[in-house]
Specification:
The structure is a homodimer. Chain A is an alpha/beta fold. Chain A has helices at 5-13, 31-40, 60-63, 121-130, 156-159, 174-183, 203-216, 235-242, 258-264, 276-281, 292-298, and strands at 18-22, 44-48, 68-72, 83-86, 108-113, 134-136, 165-169, 186-191, 196-199, 222-227, 248-253, 268-271, 289-290. The longest helix of chain A is centred in the middle third of the chain and has 14 residues, at 203-216. In chain A, strand 12 (268-271), helix 10 and strand 13 (289-290) form a beta-alpha-beta unit. The first copy, chain A, folds into three domains: 5-86, Diphthamide synthesis DPH1/DPH2 domain 1 (Rossmann fold, 3-Layer(aba) Sandwich), CATH 3.40.50; 94-199, Diphthamide synthesis DPH1/DPH2 domain 2 (Rossmann fold), CATH 3.40.50.11850; 203-306, Rossmann fold. The radius of gyration of chain A is 21 Å and the shape is flat. At the A-B interface, helix 2, strand 2, strand 10, strand 11 and helix 9 of A face helix 2, strand 2, strand 10, strand 11 and helix 9 of B.
C-alpha cells in the first residue's frame, strides 16, 4: 500500500484540514485504504473517482471541496501551489542495462526515462561510465520537471541531450518512437524488466499514419478536438487548425472515446488533447483521428518532409 | 434536422458572436450540420462533445469559450442567463389516451408528462374533459419549470396535483413507478406511441432494492458519490450521509460507470448524482450502489416504512 506517514507530515506542515485525493488507474484500488488512513488521521477526505492517466488531468473539480489536492503517481506538468505530487518509484537492477550495450554505436549517448525510474538515472549513468560510455542526462522543459524525464507527449529532455544516439529505459515502444521522430536521432529502447533491448524504427508508425491521413482526405466534416482537462487544453493550436479548413468545427471533450466520436457524427477528427490518443487508439476509433501536424499536411500548410510527432511542449 | 433559423434570430437579438452547442445523446449526430449552419451564419462555434442526458449536465467548460451555450433537447433545471434552452417537441395523436380510459377509476386525476410532450397537455386535458374526466395539471418546482412536467429525479408536478390517481403519458415505466413511490397515489402509465396503458406497481422495484441493500449491509467501505455535473451536485446531502458511517468516504465523479466503480475498489457506493443511476444501472454495476434513503435505512437513520424514491427537489 502507498505509505501515508510522510504525507501526513506534509499535510500538517501545510496546516490543511481537508484533502482531495487523486489516483491514476493503476493505483485507484488503493483509494479506500489511503482515504481511510487520512480520515483516521483527522483530515476531511474527498476522493476523485474519475479516470486519470497523468498529471495533465488534475481533479480541480474535487479540489474545489478541499484545501489541497494530493495527486499520486506522476510528476507535475504544471506548478500549482495547492497540489501535492506524490510520484511513485519503481526500482529495477541497473545491471539490466547490459542488454543495451551491444546495440550502442557511440561512446556518448543521451539517456532518458519515465517518471517512475528517474531516481535511477544516476546509477544508470554510473553503470555506463564504468563501461566507457558517457551518458548525457539533460533537463527537459516545464512539463517534465525532473532531469532526464520524458512523457508520451514531451521529448524535450531527449532533444536537449544533443546526442546522435539516445537510450530510452522504460516499458513500451511509444516513447522511443516518439523520441526518434522528435529528435531524428538513433534510438535504442531497453525494457529494464524483460531486459529486452531494440533499436526502434518509426517507419511503420509513419506508414500507418499516412494511411489514416489518406482516409481522412475526402472527409466532409472535421471535428477539431480540444480537451477540457487541466493540462491538455491547446485552444490556441485548435483555433489555428480550425482556420485552415471551412469543413472544420471545434469540439470540446473530456474523454475522447470511440462512442462519443461516433455519436457526434463528424467524418473525421483532429486531436489536440493527449497526443498519444491518435497514435495508440486509432484502431478503436470509428473514423480517422489525425494529429495536428497531419491535419496541417492535409490542408497544405506543412510539407510531408516535415512530418513529425505531436508534442505538447511547455509554453 | 433541427431548424436553426429561429435560433439565429435569438442569437442576433443577444448580439452574441460565439456560440457553444450541446446536444443530448439522441441528437448528437446533428452536431456537424447544426454547427456548420451557425458557422456559415457568421458565428464562432464550439461543440460540446461529452455525453449528455439532461439539462442537469450543462457544458460549462465549453461555455467558457463562447458568449452563450445553446442546450438542445431539455427544459432548464436551473436558470442561467448565458444558456439558451431549445427543448425538442415530439407529437402524438391525443386519441391515444383512449387506451388509458378503462384503467382510470376516478373522475378527477392528475396528469403529467415529460418535456417532449408538455406542449400536448392542454389537448390531452381537453380530450379527457370531453369524456367526463377532470385532469389536474399542476406546476412542479424550480427543476421542472413547465407546468405538468416530471423528470426521472423530480415528481413535484405529480405531487402538486393532490390527486389520488395520476395518469403519466410517456415512454418507459421508471417515471410512473417513481411517481407512485413519491406520491403513494394510484398511477396509470400510457405509452402514446404503442398505445399500451398499464397500472404500475412499485413493489417489484422495492423488493429488488431490498436485496441490494442486504448485499451492502456488511460492506467494509462505502464511497459516497458526489457528481461534478452542474445540476447533479448534492454536496450537502453527501456530507450528511458520510457522517452516518465511519466506513464512508466522499468520492467525486463525473460519469458514474461500472469500470470506475470497480477500479476504485470501494465495497459499496451511495449515489447522490443522478437518482436514476442506482435504479436503472444496478445490473451493470459490480457492487451495490444504494440511494441516499436506502443508506439512511441501512445506518438506522430512517425506518423501512419510510422507504421512498430518491428525488432531487429544487432548493
Amino acid at each position: 500500500m502507498i505509505p501515508v506517514s510522510d504525507l501526513v507530515v506534509k499535510l500538517h506542515e501545510r496546516a490543511v484540514r481537508s484533502v482531495a485525493l487523486q489516483f491514476p488507474a493503476g493505483l485507484a484500488r488503493q483509494a479506500p485504504q489511503v482515504a481511510a488512513a487520512l480520515r483516521d488521521a483527522g483530515f476531511f477526505v474527498v476522493v476523485s473517482g474519475d479516470p486519470c492517466y497523468g498529471a495533465c488531468d488534475l481533479a480541480l473539480d474535487t479540489l474545489l471541496h478541499a484545501d489541497v489536492l494530493v495527486h499520486f503517481g506522476h510528476a507535475p506538468v504544471e506548478d500549482r501551489p495547492d497540489v501535492i505530487y506524490e510520484p511513485v518509484r519503481f526500482d529495477f537492477d541497473v545491471n539490466a542495462l547490459e542488454a543495451a550495450l551491444p546495440l550502442l554505436r557511440t561512446r556518448r549517448i543521451g539517456l532518458v526515462t519515465t517518471v517512475q525510474h528517474v531516481h535511477l538515472l544516476s546509477a544508470m549513468a554510473a553503470y555506463l561510465r564504468e563501461r566507457g560510455i558517457e551518458a548525457v542526462v539533460a533537463p527537459g522543459d516545464g512539463r517534465t520537471p525532473l532531469v532526464g524525464q520524458v512523457l508520451g507527449c514531451n521529448f524535450a529532455a531527449a532533444r536537449a541531450t544533443g546526442a546522435d544516439e539516445i537510450l530510452f529505459v522504460g516499458t513500451g515502444v511509444f516513447h522511443p518512437i516518439g523520441i526518434q521522430l522528435a529528435t531524428r536521432s538513433r534510438v535504442v529502447a531497453l525494457d529494464p524488466y524483460t531486459r529486452k533491448a531494440q533499436e526502434v524504427d518509426a517507419d511503420r508508425l509513419v506508414r500507418r499514419r499516412a494511411a489514416v491521413m489518406a482516409k481522412a482526405e475526402g472527409a466532409e466534416s472535421f471535428g477539431i478536438i480540444v480537451s477540457t482537462k487541466s493540462g491538455q487544453q491547446r485552444m490556441g493550436l485548435a483555433r489555428r487548425l480550425v482556420a485552415l479548413s471551412d469543413r472544420a468545427v471545434l469540439v470540446m471533450m473530456r474523454e475522447v472515446s470511440p462512442g462519443e466520436l461516433l455519436d457526434l457524427g463528424f467524418a473525421a477528427y483532429v486531436n489536440t488533447a493527449c497526443p498519444r490518443l491518435a497514435y495508440d487508439d486509432q484502431a478503436r476509433f470509428p473514423v480517422p483521428v489525425l494529429t495536428p501536424p497531419e491535419f496541417e499536411i492535409l490542408c497544405g500548410a506543412r510539407s510531408w518532409d516535415d512530418y513529425t510527432i505531436d508534442e505538447y511542449l511547455a509554453a
